[in-house]
């Protein structure tokens, strides 16, 4: 399908899942706004590279997603937002009684609060345009839990709840709001962890992936950023116009257990 003429803002999109989604939206013809908290030459070069590859307009706008004012300013600076992908996120693993307060605050701010601020700022633009798509990147941890990930699980459950609320508030408008819930995704960050995990468990690559990293993912295969991007593009399509307020799991069967 074509998203030509639409502008997509993807938070946390200079690498990993966010970049994968941004690429697929650009491939479908959408103009794209990339974002992260850095403001490096390579960030702007990445935008230029995508623009050249897909023949669409791509900009990079720096904004710290831990700060509500900057989240809202990102939308304002973009000037138009037909598609909003709330992807920015961080993680920390610790028992709850030892969980650093500053880590809790940062995870809730970036993984949950940022989506509130960007959505609140983008909805008036979507209403003025008469069309909008909000895609929140939740997680399998938005539907189930794991030990030692209290802040992440709380934030992702919150994202799923907010998704339903926004969908109900926009149900009689040409605007939808849905959440994608990935399991483990093969990103450059995860790829870089494989050698250390192999050494720790004294296992080969395939064995450590299946038995350790993907222990809870029944397919024993990583999801890919391209698959997540394709799911986001589908949710922006006319075929998905009556899909709103729901979660789509891309988790190899994790949440079927």
Automatic annotation (TrEMBL):
It holds the Pfam family adh_short_C2. GO terms for biological process: monocarboxylic acid metabolic process. It comes from the Bacteria. InterPro entries: 3-OHbutyrate_DH (IPR011294), NAD(P)-bd_dom_sf (IPR036291), Sc_DH/Rdtase_CS (IPR020904), SDR (IPR050259), SDR_fam (IPR002347). GO terms for molecular function: 3-hydroxybutyrate dehydrogenase activity. PANTHER family: 3-OXOACYL-(ACYL-CARRIER-PROTEIN) REDUCTASE (PTHR42879), 3-OXOACYL-[ACYL-CARRIER-PROTEIN] REDUCTASE FABG (PTHR42879:SF2). Belongs to the short-chain dehydrogenases/reductases (SDR) family. This is 3-hydroxybutyrate dehydrogenase. It comes from Ruegeria marina.
